[in-house]
Amino acid sequence: MTPDMVAELLRQMMKESLILSAPLLAAAALLSFVLSVFQTLTSLQDQSLTTVPRLAAVALILLAGMPWFLSRLETYTRLLWLDLHRYLG
Fold first, then answer.
1. Which domain holds residue 53?
2. What total number of domains does the chain contain?
3. What is the overall mean pLDDT for the chain?
């Protein structure tokens, strides 16, 4: 396997991981921002006020998006296995 092939594999893997993690990260960041503004406006300093809704939102997105996440992972894995001969030989 040449260094170019390794770089291509790593590039594809990083692209897929960014695509899969983007909805979760965006939702958590947006919710954190909204809750931070709410805490600032109301002068509440409770840490569970930000942690619990953020965890719940991430869990709901994971549950709702699981078919999409799994289909992306399945497609990526299938393409990796189909091109395995190219990387090994």
1. 3-88
2. 1
3. 91
Q: The whole model's pTM is what?
A: 0.77
> Phi and psi of 69, rounded to 5°?
-60, -45
Q: What is the pLDDT of residues 46-75, one digit of tens each?
A: 877 888 989 999 999 999 999 999 999 999
pLDDT tier at 2, thresholds 50, 70, 90: confident
Residues 6+ apart with CB under 8 A from 85: none
Instruction: Give the Cα separation of 62 and 21 in Å (integer).
Output: 10
* Cα(73)–Cα(17) distance, integer angstroms: 9
Contacts within 8 Å (CB) and 24+ apart, 20-26:
20/69, 20/72, 20/73, 23/61, 23/65, 24/58, 24/61, 24/62
